[in-house]
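WP5 quarterly update. Target: Cadherin-15. Source organism: Hippolais icterina. Length: 712 aa.
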Amino acid sequence: RQHEAPRRVKRAWVIPPISVSENHKRIPHLLVQIKSDKQQPGGVIYSIKGPGVDEEPLGIFSIDKFSGKVFLNAMLDREETDRYRLRAFALDLGGVTLEDPTDLEIIVVDQNDNRPLFRQDVFTGRVVEGAEPGTCVMTVDATDADDPDTDNAALRYSILEQGAAGMFSINATTGEICTARPGLDRETMGVYNLTVQAADMSGDGLTTTAMAVIHLEDINDNPPEFTKEEFSMEVEEQAAGVDVGKVFVHDKDLAGSPSWLAKFTILEGDPEGAFAIRTDPHTNDGVLSVVKPLDHEVRDRFELTVSVQNERPLEPSAPASPRALATVRVRVRDVNEAPVFRENPRRISVLEGTPPGTAITTYTASDPDTHQIQTLSYALLYDPADWLKLDPHTGTVRTKRELLHPSAFLQGGWYIALVLARDDAEPPLSATGTLSIEILEVNDHAPQLQPPAGVLCGRPGRGGTLLLGATDDDRPPHGAPFHFQLSPQHPQLARNWSIARFNVTHAVLAVLAELPEGPYSLPLLLRDSGTPPREQQQLLNVSVCHCGRDGACLDGALAAATAGAGITLGALLIILGSAVLLLAQPCASKPLPAPQDAYDINQLRHPELFSPRAKPPLRRDAPLSSGTPMAPRKLPSSPSDIEDFINEGLEAADSDPSVPPYDTALIYDYEGSGSVASPLSSIVSSLTDEDQDYDYLSEWGPRFRRLADLYG
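Structure tokens (predicted):
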């Protein structure tokens, strides 16, 4: 089988690209004639298809179907479509294809019909003043819609207008604008407006223009300068925190910038720092003010040297300022000033009991106005107790009456008064001084024995002790500690009696030998700790009773009745133990328990049935010198009267001024077992009475078992 040779297209049917210029105005215009090699006797029918024929845009191209001539029917725009690709067909009269379709390409040739266009109408750039030549500022750029491969779109840039200085240049190809010469000075010209041009055809074609605005940025190349070399001001004395005046400066740099903002310094003339200077942020002037009060009498004028500079350092290339320093003269005006108490408050000490009319101090003020002749007068502004008298001319303070302790007008031993000093100017001015008077305590009272009587067992060791106390009307340090001793004038007392210190206010009287019953008067010497100490001899009335085995008086009722305000150490233990037991009882908010069998209410109703004596007991707890107590009270006739009976007894005990308030009916009994109260661990455990016998505590029931273990 023979291979078919490649099919050869007839040369007449191959159509080379056709070029036509855009904007061709002769319409219709013959572009080309196509022709098929297969010419038929009856003829050939030609047709074309594609964009510009039967596709958008329609009607631009057409063909004579019998001759094959292709025509241009409309003006072309290369910027819209730069080429068209069509298909040509050859058919016989019957519509049968004679040739394969062939390509018909129409190329639109560019014309320079578009001007260059800048991307914006105004370009903005910034450069610091004083920039070196060749410093690039900004770039302007334009576009051209023509064919970029032709000179129709080849752009060139230039500066048409920038003023006479010619400070800037532009790169013709890139449009970059740079400084061309030195000497850019913002203070001379702060903004440059350049007119720039772009032209196609490499600068010979169509053109367009735009504006390039260049702002010069300020640098600190101009120092601030005072407007004059000297400034004068004045201010009143004693004024502080006030403005005195302004110093004015001028700076050519940009207002409001750090290169313009001034900073002032006081170099000389103000060693005490009485002045300050700040910058007014709006005007850039210096504001001088007084920060410490000025005294005309001390110094009536100041001459200050003030310098000025910028917040930002000056450029090295900037010239030095001949007016960077100025002299400011300030005059201090004299005004009336109030008197002054140099010592305020004035503190003095006065002994209590100082007699009336005694001069205790002279409290005066001084007038700062030494250049004015003025007289000061004085008055008491505050004297709450009316204790003082003040001389209005000399300021001498005297007592009007005795200053004594205690007083409601004393605060911690101090008396406070206020003194007013006034000058005679017009209008007058005054000042107040505080006078603090310490009333010194004087040791003018000796300690007093309290109580002056007591009762104790006449046998050493058990019940043979009595607790003594003392009081002193003087305040510390003229009171306690107190010293108790038997009178040195009666040395024989030391054979039967001894006194030992108990604490700073009490002592313990003890029997050294067994003594018979009866009253005893012991002269005691009591001394305080004042300076100098005060002492006084006093009598202590002691009743010695017959002692029982437990160290108490055999007749319990008699011992209770004859017990004075002084108490034995054993009784002190019992009282303290009872107080602890009372505190340990259940809270009062709980229901009261039913009466126990141990408490017999009949003793309150019929005490005569339970007393071994026919007559009511007499109280023997009063001093030996006291009178016979009142007769027995009427007994209650019914249970409802028992409360009144008890209250009357309590009132009788409280109203007795000679003894402590011991109740007239004290009934003790065992309250039963199983109580929730805690055991007593220690009562006056600091006492060290080794010679005491506390075995009897074991007989008092389980409540005192702990005490019996500790002291038995």
